[in-house]
Amino acid sequence: MTASVKSPRAALPPLGEDEWPEAVEVVIMGGGPVGMSCAILLAQRGIDVLLLERRDFLFRFPRAHLLNPRTMEAFHDMGVAEDIYAATPTHDRWRKAVWYTTATGPGRFDGLKIGEVPAWGGGPDAERYRASSPRAFANMPQLRLDPLIHRHAVAAAPGRIRAKQEVVDIRQDADSATVVIRDAVTDDVREVRARYVIAADGGRDSAALLGVELEGPRDMREVVNYHVSLDLSAWSEPDALLGHFLHPAGGARRRGTIQALGPTHYDRDSEEWLVSVAGWMVEGDPDDEAALFDSIRRMLGLSEDHAITMHSMTRWTYNGLVAKRFRAGHVFLAGDAAHKHPPTGGLGLNSGIQDAQNLCWKLAAVLDGQAPDALLDSYQAERRPIVAWYTAHSLENANRHPPIAAALGFGEDEAEGFRNLEVFVSDTLEGEAMRARVATEVAHNAHDYSQLGVEAGFHYEAGALVPDGTPVPGDPSDPTDFQATSRPGHHLPHVWLQSRVAQDGTAPSSHDLVARVGLTLLTSASAASRWQEAIDLIGGALPVTVVAIDDADEAWRAAREIGDDGALLVRPDRKVAWRAAEMPADPSMVLDDALAVILRGGRAPAADPAEPFLKRIRAAASVLVQ
Ligand SMILES: Cc1cc2nc3c(=O)[nH]c(=O)nc-3n(C[C@H](O)[C@H](O)[C@H](O)COP(=O)(O)OP(=O)(O)OC[C@H]3O[C@@H](n4cnc5c(N)ncnc54)[C@H](O)[C@@H]3O)c2cc1C
Description:
Elements: E1 23-29, H1 33-44, E2 49-52, E3 66-67, H2 69-78, H3 81-87, E4 96-100, E5 113-118, H4 126-132, E6 138-139, H5 142-156, E7 161-162, E8 165-172, E9 177-183, E10 189-199, H6 206-210, E11 214-215, E12 222-230, E13 242-246, E14 255-262, E15 272-278, H7 289-300, E16 308-317, E17 321-323, E18 327-328, E19 331-333, E20 339-340, H8 348-367, H9 377-398, H10 402-408, H11 414-425, H12 429-444, H13 446-449, H14 452-455, E21 519-524, H15 528-538, E22 544-549, H16 554-560, E23 567-570, E24 576-580, H17 587-599, H18 611-622
Parallel strand pairs: 1-2, 1-10, 2-7, 4-13, 10-19, 21-22
Antiparallel strand pairs: 3-6, 4-5, 8-9, 9-10, 11-17, 12-15, 12-16, 13-14, 14-15, 17-20, 18-19, 21-23, 23-24
The structure holds flavin-adenine dinucleotide.
Residues 29-35, 52-55, 63-66, 142, 166-167, 200-202, 204-205, 225, 316, 335-337, 343, 346-350, 352 line the site of flavin-adenine dinucleotide (FAD).
């Protein structure tokens, strides 16, 4: 049985190229992946949105590439996921990270494998990842992903995704924000009023414009990225997406990371690569391309005349920043504007997309008059502790790499490094002990690459939800531990519903039952009419769709953690907002109370839930090696 759902608004009307509205519902500042995702999610709901990007929409740098299952769920909702899967390899061979001395080369120790870990839902973790979500882990460098999201954003919000428009000021009064925009081509300045603004500017201007402080360590380590074309097919490693190189030659300078950028192969046959080295390791003049190519060739063990073509070079630094506030009046910070951390763990882009998913359903509900403005305060309550955790975890991941070089005995002294490498390959007890130490340090890096608890298990303890007093299942301090649960604040467990197999033989996921507008009440077929009556009695503005799942669906019965006549109330971002283990004596009263708490954005926690993670950030930063 399905409740009548208030129809979403009509499709968003296009804006003419030169048409500038005086006012819109939401202005988005910044056309990176987070801003564009917000534009799609809001436009799909018919929200009057305008995205302003200070530059063009030519995406120049590879940047992030790992898209975890929760992000792919959001991309699925946006209609982007299928394009990503279609453009990336279907085989599983890219799912590991490896450590080598060099990729190849004539030297005795060249091309020596130091270790590997399974990564991104591959290897022994494949089944656990598959069970956690209906969407698979994907890999697509931003160089190719951002144009794809842009295409979808332009289609969803025609005329409203604008390049060369820089937000130079944001003024606020009690009812709205006025966004001051400078046209980068004509220098014209104009103003657009908005009920709400999403600052998704990557942290460039919003903090200063809004007076929001980002706390945490800055500029801890400089990294240089080269996007190059080179033939690495001589590498003995057939199927790694990511390779780390450590060599005793050069006294600890010959270290770096490469990542296959495709576009047709994401392994040693990749046409393009991202080469990353710590800034201080660059040997020679960093502006001398020939010297740079030589250092890349040395790191990979390639011959002096091995062809390399440079596409771009960027310098960036490690930060561990979390905004003190995610909301400043009518403005919400999202993505890198609200949090910045190193890519160790691949969580930056992912958490930004998850910010967008968290914020946009709430904005749409408020703008549609279905919820009070207070619901929007839950955005900070929910997201800030998560991204503080992610920031701490990413810095801790960065700290797991240097112990591998230490276990190998590689340091400033090149000769000593070579002596230690002799031991590493020797058929001696000492060699065996060293290999065991190195293997242990390599295995510790699994937390960077296979972290289902972090990627799929993030959950909210406070916010637009009603806690039920049950403990978090499993070990929340273990980044790899993930247990699906319907505990409020957690992601709705995913199961393939055999009770709903379609004519073509495919079964939908429990995730596919969740409405995009309002809340979804999942219950069993035998209890659905009583829950529907309760909802009809309440008659609130926020639609609640009752979805009945066959009482005999074994997989669902095993996953739901409630009785036959209980219910799960699920938000559009698939977080469980409330659950009833069984039918209450007065279901409409109990549900009404729960809805009131959810729509008010929940109850504020006594202490700042981000604080333990901010402490971990400071601790990890204090030992981060250059
Ligand atoms: C080398 C590297 C590797 C990475 N790897 C990963 C990874 O594997 N996985 C992962 O999840 N993350 C990774 N990241 C992080 C990821 O790239 C960022 O988290 C992500 O791009 C953030 O997206 P965003 O939309 O918030 O910001 P951005 O992509 O920075 O976009 C912000 C946009 O706002 C625009 N803008 C700025 N100021 C204004 C203004 N005043 N007015 C209008 N527009 C403005 C900018 O021009 C820009 O286009 C990596 C980053 C780097 C550098």
